[in-house]
């Protein structure tokens, strides 16, 4: 069994944003030499997500609006987590809707994807350094 | 390490629906010959889900009603994704709540499940061909 | 390839609650002898979750309040699942928001975590025996 590990780095200029990381994950799969296996891609921070969906600007605006309705940032005093001095309780909630991680099959040395699947980093508490872990196992 | 890959095909008659795919996944596990490992089951389309829950008709109605409240289909003009000519923005949102994939342990050649766990395909934009990927690794 | 399997047992005194199970998962990883691989941690019951987030009391109160708003327990008659005699339909919904499982990388024999990641068991229909499955594969 082979394994390969890589970290991706982010520092988004806004509180909420989405970044297509499919090319970086494909690169990691190539580097691994794994032909058949699984790749785990997960946010290493608890106010961020990794998810798979469409690379379409309008949809990303819909995600922003919808998540803000489901778990509004303001007023920050509505959340007990923010009593600790933080203002990011909403980001911990939004991340649960979008998920922490994806697991993707590797077949023939490539991401085994449907026609529109793209991997995204989802940031809900930006303007700080964050990391994503890519872990590959297989043969 | 062994690996095995299989696609399941769907074309549901309604916009939203749930299909119990546990028997097909069990068949794939048997075909793989894997005794100890993991099986990844994921929607290959971004308006569909794979999830694990109860095979109970009333609960499925509750999921339909609840998802429609969380992310209503109509009016379609409320979503910027639908400015592209699509009418399925709500399906991209519903899929995030229910999830893209499940990973299930294989122990002794069988799905290692609790008493009520069943695997479902969840469709949120039906009446078209869709696929689910089953990928098994182990020994 | 090595594999290792372990069950964790729970019986929470309240309907909803969160338990940090990171130490038990770390113990299972050590017992497995796996240095590079993946660990799957999943609820074996369909009214419970395993998720990764912060071990902060205020945040857990925020999760309780938010999940109760998204999928209220009462009135129980609002859910068709409860027509079967159950009163836990809301628990099946809450579990979908928080997720069934996490997959965590094992690197150098340890959980490969970001600075604040902790694994939680999330209970939404407590006062009964429940189980979590830990399955480890790797080398």
In short:
3 copies of one chain form a homotrimer. Chain A is an alpha+beta fold and 139 residues long.
What would you say this structure looks like, in words?
Three copies of one chain form a homotrimer. With 139 residues, chain A is of the alpha+beta class. Helices cover 25% and strands 37% of the residues of chain A. Chain A has helices spanning 22-32, 57-70, 89-98; strands at 2-10, 17-20, 36-43, 48-53, 101-107, 110-111, 118-123, 130-138. Chain A has a five-stranded antiparallel sheet, covered by helices on one side. In chain A, strands 2-7-4 form a three-stranded antiparallel sheet. In chain A, strand 5 and strand 6 form a beta hairpin. The radius of gyration of chain A is 16 Å and the shape is elongated. The mean pLDDT of chain A is 98. The A-B interface holds A 1, 36-38, 51-54, 56-59, 61-63, 66, 70, 97-99, 102-105, 107, 112-117, 137-139 and B 1, 3, 5, 38, 40, 42-46, 70-71, 79-84, 89, 92-93, 95-97, 99-101, 103, 131, 133, 135, 137.
């Amino acid at each position: 069994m082979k394994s390969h590990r890589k970290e991706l780095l982010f520092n988004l200029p806004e509180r909420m944003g989405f970044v297509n990381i499919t090319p970086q994950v494909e690169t990691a799969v190539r580097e691994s030499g794994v032909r058949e296996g699984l790749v785990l891609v997960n946010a290493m921070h608890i106010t961020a997500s990794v998810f798979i969906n469409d690379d379409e600007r309008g949809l990303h605006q819909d995600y922003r609006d919808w998540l803000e309705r489901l778990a509004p940032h303001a007023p920050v005093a509505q959340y007990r987590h923010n009593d600790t001095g933080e203002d990011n309780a909403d980001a911990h909630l939004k991340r649960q809707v979008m998920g922490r991680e994806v697991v993707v099959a590797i077949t023939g040395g490539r991401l085994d994807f449907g026609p529109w699947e793209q991997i995204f980093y989802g940031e809900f508490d930006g303007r700080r350094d964050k990391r994503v872990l890519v872990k590959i196992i297989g043969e």
